[in-house]
Every structure is written in structure tokens, then in C-alpha cells.
Amino acid sequence: MSLLHQASLPFGLRSGSTFTPAPSLKPLLDGISELQVPGPETVWAVGEVDLGQSVRLVRFYLDNQDYWLQVLMNGAEPGDIVLFGYHSAVAVNDQEHLQSLTGSAPKAGMPIFEHDGNLYSRQWGREAGLAEWVALCEAVTSPEARYRIQHLCMLYARDTGLPYRREFLLLSVEEDEYGALTYTTSLGVTLFPTDFHVT
Fold first, then answer.
1. If 0-12 CB within 10 Å is exposed, 13-18 middle and 19+ buried, where does residue 11 land?
2. b/e string for 93-121 if b means 16 or more Cβ within 10 A?
3. pLDDT tens digits along 87-109
4. pLDDT of res. 51
5. 197 backbone dihedrals φ, ψ, rounded to 5°
6. How many domains does the chain have?
7. Which residues make Cβ contacts (< 8 Å) with residue 123, sequence separation at least 6?
8. Do residues 170 and 188 touch, judged by C-beta distance below 8 A?
9. What is the pTM of this model?
10. From CA 158, how far away is CA 51, in angstroms rounded?
11. Domain range holding 92?
12. Peptide linkage before 106 cis (omega within 30 of 0)
């Protein structure tokens, strides 16, 4: 995978490094976002999603499996940073079960989606009604294995009231190499490089 040329990874992040949120981040987000800021965590696995034209998503999965850090890369330059936490993960039994999860009210893919009393705006697709979910292929490397995950996902966001920080809602149907499906809901918040350090 192109991913694990260490020089191409941002902020010194890599498998085995420690991601430590700044002490100011937790009180800043308290009452603003439902995401609970973790303590210092070791990066366990690293994933890459190639978006084309030298643009990629790099995801750093932490030892605390509830969290992952995503960095949008344009070539070697890091862009948007989002700290995500899994809100829920449901094993999908069959297509009927999947339809009940993604097609119930509020219907995933509509321009506005309500989650835990908050309204989020769809970030992908310009349709007035239901938008197609986006397919992504992620290559993941951990100290134990290399594997691929297929994602079918939809991204939503809302303003937090804090300058340049948004809260994201990522809905994803994930398929592993064995064909097992999981429907995940993740909440994320915008980070800046000053919000964390890496050792």
C-alpha cells in the first residue's frame, strides 16, 4: 500500500505513536458536542482511502477501539482533521435488516438528518431528495494484518457555535473481507493541529 511510507503520514502519526489531546479540548467541547474526548491513546492501525488526484483520507485507529482520527491529505499536505468516536455498531443480518436500519425515519440520505435531537445537513450530493450513498474502499494496516474494508457511507454535519468547528455524523455500512456487514454511526469534531500532540 502507498500508505505506509512513513514520510507520507502527517503530524508524526503512525502505528505505535501516541495521540494525546490537549487538556483544553475536553472543556472546550463539553456541552457543545456529544463526542467524549479520550485520554492519550496509542495508534493501533492505519487506514487509507484513495479519493483520486493525490487526495486521500488517512485514518488512525486508536487502541481504544471507540476512536479514530481522520486527516484529509492533498499530496503530502494535511488538510481537515476530524476526531471520530463510534456511537453505535450493529451487525447486519441480511438485506432486509440493512434496509430497516438505513431506510427508517429519519431516512439516511435525505438533506437533513436528525440524530439525538440535533439536526445535521447532508455534505454529499445536491439532490433535493434522497442522495446516493458514497462507496469508499479502505486499505488498513495493523501490526498483525493488512486488509480492506468496503464502505457505503453518508456524511452529515452541523455547526457547533465554535469558530471553524463542526460536528460530523458519519453513517457507514462496512463490509469486511469475509463479507460480514456492520452498520456504524460515528460522531466527529473538527480538530486543529494545536488540539493534540503526538509522541
1. middle
2. eeeeebeebbeeeeebbbeebebeeeebe
3. 999 999 888 888 887 776 668 89
4. 94
5. -135, 160
6. 1
7. 155, 156, 157, 168
8. yes
9. 0.92
10. 23
11. 2-198
12. yes
